[in-house]
Amino acid sequence: MFFMRMMLRSFSRQFGRRMLIAVTVCLSACVATAMLGVVFDVGDKLNAELSTYGSNITVQAKADAVVSDLYGDQSTPTAFLKESQVPRIKTIFWAYNITDFAPRLDLRGTVDQVGAPLVGTWFGRTVKVDSGESSAVGLKGLRPWWKVQGRWPKDEAGSAGRTEAMMGKELAARLGGRQVGDQVKVGLDGKQQTVTIVGIFDSGDSDASSLYLPTRALQEMSGLTDQIDQVEVKALTTPENDLARKAARNPAALSQDEWETWYCTAYPSSIAYQIEEAIPGSMAKQVRQVAALQGDVLQKTQAVMILMTVLSLLAAAIAVANLMASSISERSSEFALLKALGATDGAVSRLVLAETALIALVGALVGVLLGSGVAQIVGRVVFGSGITMRPMVFVLVFVLLALTVLLASISSIRSILRLRPAEVLHGR
Fold it and tell me: Which of 28, 103, 168, 347 lies 20 to 30 Å from 131, alpha-carbon distance?
């Protein structure tokens, strides 16, 4: 009871100084909660953001992939995969991380007697797997940055059995300025087919010189029934670490525990390995530029936010230490009297720590609530979605603040231990 009265008396006598300590801890808790909340959730947010820039895994026939590795990209495929096996991608362990995919059949043909790359693909298709679940996949989800004049083609034949296609901007210019609604003749291996252009796209790269049409149309002309040369896959992945890089080099070199950790984590190499298991004769490779970018951006973003958290805690420690030093200097006579009346150094130190801990707790609770709100604002402004505040964030913030306040209190407690009641009470 006496202990509580001493604490209440201290708050009433030095209310302004106590409020400054509370505000300091509150601001530090706010910054730490917001930054750590984003740090713990930024991986998924960045992966989702970067995945809008296309596929991060490509699947080829094993023989064709080996040739490409040895001699570079080949204009004509040398081996093929079965288009009917492509939906198996959604049966792997990480099926829910596969957000989109589309097969490709790349051949060289003519468009109105002008040589041009022909690409057979899925524009927008719903695939069903054995479990009964269905997913909407296709090139439309893989190329969200394309500027399309008109609309995306349909995979099925249109009215009067017409095949729909979309043409790159550069190819349209080469053909005399083709427009949406025009019909062109596509030639391949001596066969011709008339297609209707329903979209003109600007991709900003070499694709702008190509003609895209449904796989079935290109397969009919080439005689490659149910054949494709690659599949583009967009997946939400976890940035690679040493374990993932070790597995990418040789999965057989992993120990049992390493294998289970790697296989059950959404690394690009793990997802690629499982795709190879699902599609016989395939080789899945991650797009290294995308994977490296994800890891690099994630590490830099996390480093900046952790640095801001550390600086806020350091600033709080300095501010609290200075405020406590001033408070103890003003109360030196009070502490000297307590010691003269028989209070031990430990009892006086516990009183000071209890007072500081109580006011810091109030500031921390308010700061954590404010920090959670700031994290949501950061998520909405930067990533367009809210931040998931994990319980570990709050635990970590309170532990860090407790250590910070304790560290700030050490110098003040040492000054209490050095107090000599006789000298202080006599004004020396």
Answer: 103
